[in-house]
Amino acid sequence: MSEFLNWLLEELGKISEDEIVDPNQPLKSGDRVVGTLESLQVKKIYTQRGRLMREATELNLNLQEMAPDVNADGGDHDPATCKRCKLRRELDSLSEKAIFLDKLFWISVRSELSEENQIEGERMEADGVGIRSGWQIVFFKLKESSLL
Ligand SMILES: [Zn+2]
Question: How close is the Cα of 48 to the center of ligand 1, in Å?
């Protein structure tokens, strides 16, 4: 199996049930609840996605605080020894994984919806699928109709 898939399955396997993080987003006007996410696996993907995003944010801050070129002491810049380049490589890899997990999460949520749900979403011309406190799955509209 691939390095990445191994890593992903291992990380998800390490998350225990009480480590799962609730989306903690109250329902907003324009939301229509169409179901509740039950899958532990998908909840773990959400949790891991959040961890990676926080890590990436932290790394990014560290990177910004770092001097533009650590090897500016007269020597040639070498990405092999430059601490900043090393950190940037880590950040690139982390960001890529976070983006992938985000996609994976939303594909997984959408896959939990029935065709009736999908049709409901189309009828209300929803702008997208969202997740709210208690793992409620919603279709949301960005601009609430003034008539409702
Ligand atoms: Zn560098």
Answer: 29
Structure tokens of 68?
A: 């533009």
Nearest to 62 by CA among 36, 21, 90, 43: 90
Phi and psi of 117, rounded to 5°? -60, -50
* 125 is a domain residue: yes
- Cα separation, 5 vs 106, in Å, equals 18
- Is position 145 within any domain? no
Q: Write the pLDDT tens digit of every residue in 87-109.
A: 999 999 999 999 999 999 999 99
- Cα 69 to averaged position of ligand 1 atoms, centre (Å): 6
Ranges of residues in the chain with a pLDDT under 50 are 148
